[in-house]
Amino acid sequence: MSIGKPAAEPLWLQGRDAVVENDQGVKWRHGRPDYHLTRITVDKERTRHFPANSLEMVAENLVRVFEMEVSHKADPAQWISVVLDRFRTNVNGGPWASAQDIAERGSYNLFIGDTPYYKASEETFESSHDIFHTAFPEGFFWEVLEVYSPPPTVSFKWRHWGNFTGPYKGQQPTGKRVEIFGMSVARVAEDLRILEVEHYYDNSQFLRQIATGCPMHAAAAK
Question: CA-CA distance, 199 to 181, in Å (whole number)?
């Protein structure tokens, strides 16, 4: 499936690296991010390959820009991948969250929520990132598997994966590959910026693979 692009391609469709490089005036949380090793790993370990101008790659690149911005740009007003005054998101039909909600609470907390293995309501933006970056020091990667519908409502299946090589809340790593699968429905504007996105996946599947002890112990461990 392919998609026509404007002759002068907007920055948010040029890929994550282009957005990072064009960072004049951007307020980074912890300095400009570097995705050099991520590119190498994803190229080797991804399971699907699509032409550069395909809708699959357009969707994948836009989501990567969005994920980079919510993780590293402190001010939502500087997120160029979304229509800020209209943007909202939810997970598994739960309550809607705004860009400001994500900036304050963190994407991990909103994406995972409260489960027997992790209590998002007890974590901050910073603590959540520390927890999962510690558990997956080599990275936790993402790819589009299939796209089912074109703009303005883009529905797609995806895969997240990484190696559990660091401790998770006091539990020792197994070194095993962890994978989760899900699908998302994104509604986009004419210029393909995101208006809203809904995610659907088993939010305990991921944590069951790394919290190997008693669920209550896993949630309480610090």
Answer: 11
Give per-residue pLDDT as tens, 176-213: 999 999 999 999 999 999 999 999 999 888 898 898 65
3-state secondary structure of 130: helix
Residue 204: per-residue pLDDT: 82
pLDDT confidence of residue 1:
53
User: Which pLDDT score is estimated for 213?
Assistant: 53
Q: Which of 213, 205, 146, 211 is nearest to 179 (CA)?
A: 205
Indicate whether 8 belongs to any domain: no
- Is the residue at 167 inside a domain? yes
In the chain, which stretches have pLDDT less than 70? Answer: 1-7, 212-222
3-state SS record for 141-209:
EEEEEEECCCCCEEEEEEEEEEECCCCECCECCCCCEEEEEEEEEEEECCCCCEEEEEEEECCCHHHHC
- Which range of residues forms the domain containing residue 182? 35-220
- Are residues 173 and 164 in contact, defined by beta-carbon separation less than 8 angstroms? yes
Residue 142 placed within a domain: yes
What is the CATH number for 164? 3.10.450.50
What is the reported pTM? 0.90
The DSSP call for residue 3 is -
Domain assignment present for residue 22? The answer is no
User: Which pLDDT value is given to residue 54?
Assistant: 96
Number of domains composing the chain: 1
Q: Cβ distance 186 to 152 under 8 Å?
A: no
What are the C-alpha distances in Å from 218 to residues 83, 100, 206?
A: 38, 29, 13
